Amino acid sequence: MAVARLSPQDAEAFRSLRLEALRQAPLAFGSTLAEEASRPLSWFGDTLESSAVFAASGAEGRLLGMLGYRAESLRKRQHIGQLWGLYVRPEARGLGIGAGLLDACISHARARVSVLQLLAGAANPDAIRLYERAGFTLLGTEPASLRVDGVDAATLIMMLRLD
């Protein structure tokens, strides 16, 4: 498995994996499949330009998982980075891909910010354990933060100090 930062030239592969993530785990993401499927390919390229998205690929080059990092733009919050969009294909889970992606994002962020934050679905104990093993702590819970097909989902707000 290789972990690398995606570039705008990877927009098509990124779009495919992102739409799969939204289809497979709708309660894990704030965006919907319909919203992102309607966006042009250039939007995905722009996302790869404005965020650092790291992806793990298998021997054949197929993307197996991804995790994004973006910096806060407000001056008073520029010391904070946000992690977003963790997804690992079901057939690749349990292989350490999530940990590899998280390590890559933390390394990238360490030179840029002193705090990392993320939102994690409360119903996703595997992701929560991954974040806790990396040193993230719980700041709070937002109950009913997402509603999908009439089902409410809680979100955990987590942070990691890098300084």
Topology, please?
Blueprint: E1 2-5, H1 11-24, H2 33-37, H3 41-50, E2 52-57, E3 63-71, E4 80-88, H4 97-110, E5 115-121, H5 125-133, E6 137-148, E7 151-161
Parallel strand pairs: 4-5
Antiparallel strand pairs: 1-2, 2-3, 3-4, 5-7, 6-7
Helix pairs in contact: 1-3
Care to describe what's here?
The protein is of the alpha+beta class and 163 residues long. It has a single domain, classed as Aminopeptidase (3-Layer(aba) Sandwich). Helices cover 32% and strands 36% of the residues. The protein has helices at 11-24, 33-37, 41-50, 97-110, 125-133; strands spanning 2-5, 52-57, 63-71, 80-88, 115-121, 137-148, 151-161. A seven-stranded mixed sheet has the order 1-2-3-4-5-7-6, sandwiched between helices. Helix 1 crosses helix 3 (41-50). The chain is globular, with a radius of gyration of 15 Å.
Task: Give the key terms.
Aminopeptidase, 5 helices, alpha+beta, 163 residues, seven-stranded mixed β-sheet, 7 strands
